[in-house]
Amino acid sequence: xxxxxxxxxxxxxxxxxxxxxxxxxxxxxxxxxxxxxxxxxxxxxxxxxxxxxxxxxxxxxxxxxxxxxxxxxxxxxxxxxxxxxxxxx
Length: 89
Hints:
The protein has one domain: DNA double-strand break repair and VJ recombination XRCC4, N-terminal (Dna Repair Protein Xrcc4, Chain: A, domain 1, Beta Complex), CATH 2.170.210.10. It has 2 helices and 4 strands, in the order E-E-E-E-H-H. A 4-stranded antiparallel β-sheet has the order 1-2-3-4. It is globular. The N and C termini lie far apart (about 30 Å). It comes from Pampusana beccarii. GO terms for molecular function: DNA binding. InterPro entries: DNA_repair_prot_XRCC4, XRCC4-like_N_sf, XRCC4_N, XRCC4_N_sf. Pfam families: XRCC4 (PF06632).
């Protein structure tokens, strides 16, 4: 299992710091687990392969392209800083 941990500052609260951990087996497109923490509380969830396909279709985006964008937004870390915005609600 592969995992990444990134620090994010959501545009909805730029002074706050959150930590985003993503874990997956072999390929992010097969689904992944996610943990979001503010240092005091943590929220967990999973995203299935079917949910990834459905979201790509809803966005009228090629599935492989959608998975590449997910990788950039969720696991690329410093190289994607400033390219993606996160909103916590």
